[in-house]
Amino acid sequence: MNHLIGPLSLVGILSTAMVYGTDMFSLTVGRRALRFASPSAVTEVMGFIHSFGDARMPIWGIVSILSNLFLAVFGGSERRGFYFASLAMLILFVVIYNLLSKPINRLQTEAAKTGGRLDNARELQASWDRSLLIRTPLLVASLLTAWDLPSNSVCRRPSRRPRARTSGHSEPNGALHRCSGL
User: Fold this and answer.
1) Mutual orientation of helices 39-56 and 102-114 as an angle, nearest 10°?
2) Separation between Cα atoms, residue 68 and residue 55, nearest integer Å
3) Which of 27, 83, 103, 111 sits in a 20 to 30 Å window from 128, CA-based?
4) Could you tell me which residues come within 8 angstroms of residue 173 by beta carbon, excluding any fewer than 6 positions away?
């Protein structure tokens, strides 16, 4: 089972990073650009973006949550608390997304698909943007608690059993490091 910890941790981190990157793009680029668009353009563009995003982004969140759950339950006891903390941040992210962002996504998507107009388009988008200020730090916290490169199984010190000396970088007892530079 230990051989799965490193790859599973990497999958969880990359999945969380996918969601984080999307939210950071919206926070740093999209939010600013949408201020220059007309309210009807904001509604149409964001409506279609949410239509595709709400269909395609959940897989990254599901994979991230499942990998953190697996790691929290079956990972080593020295990292268990960190994986549970990461999992808690991801669950809180989903709750906040469902409470604050998803209702706005639905309104914008429906208006975009029907060619409708939202009288409060700017206010809705501003509210959605504010939800990023809550969601993004949760993703950062999840990433930081899940990421522990030195104890990752891909880069773990071998057991301290004495071995015959071999060529290469070796420890005093003859065990080789599997990571370059360590």
Assistant:
1) 110
2) 22
3) 83
4) 160, 161, 162, 163
**108, 109, 112, 117 alpha-carbon torsion, rounded to 10°:** -30
Pull the structure tokens for residue 22: 């999307």
CA geometry: angle 21, 133, 52, nearest 5 deg: 45
Query: What is the arithmetic mean of pLDDT over 19-39?
Result: 95
* Mean pLDDT value across residues 123-145: 95
Indicate the pTM of the whole model: 0.79
Cα–Cα nearest to 143, from 15, 8, 3, 41: 15
> For the residues of 73-85, what is the DSSP string, one character each?
HHS-TTTHHHHHH
Where are the chain's structural domains? 2-155
Write the CA distances from 76 to 5, 71, 154, integer angstroms.
9, 8, 14
Q: What does the block give as tokens for 110?
A: 């429906």
Burial of 100 (0-12, 13-18, 19+ CB in 10 A): middle
